[in-house]
Design a protein that fits this description.
The chain is of the alpha/beta class. It has five helices and six strands; from the N terminus they run βααβββαβααβ. The protein has a six-stranded mixed beta sheet, with helices on both faces.
């Protein structure tokens, strides 16, 4: 599918925060937290990451205000930390997620700081194909 990838602007961060938190909230990893605790505390985590990481959007090339998805990441010297990659459900399986991932990682080793059940289940083979590993402790500066 035709798209362009461009940096997010501060006014686009609502598009980033909302699906990131909503998708993570549906994950079994957060099932024992109340909504209040999850959205308050993980909202801080996401906002802190967004203050320091890069966010790029996949957009319609004819209307760059129509977003298909995003990737939030930090490019390190030897690896890329992918904090969250999201594609709207109507645009999945069209190569947009792969394009965002490849745009962020440039072929470097990649570590995911966040995952949900979808990523650990149906997308597991894709993870393995691209050599992506999960390490939430990378947020504290721990790299493996």
């Amino acid at each position: 599918m035709r798209h362009v990838i461009r940096p997010a602007l501060p006014e686009h961060l609502g598009f980033v925060v909302k699906p990131w938190l909503q998708e993570l909230r549906r994950s079994s990893t957060t099932r024992y937290l109340t909504d209040r605790v999850f959205f308050q505390e993980h909202g801080h985590v996401v906002n802190n990451l967004l203050a320091t990481c890069r966010v790029d959007l996949a957009c319609d090339p004819d209307d760059e205000s129509h977003f298909y998805g995003f990737v939030a990441y930090a490019q390190g010297e030897h690896e890329c930390v992918v904090h969250w990659l999201y594609v709207k459900s109507a645009f999945r399986q069209l190569g947009i997620g792969r394009a965002l991932y490849e745009h962020a990682t440039h072929g470097a080793r990649a570590i995911a700081s966040h995952v949900n059940d979808f990523v650990m289940g149906p997308l597991r083979s894709t993870w393995e194909k691209y050599g992506l590993t999960y390490n939430p402790y990378v947020l504290r500066g721990a790299h493996a």
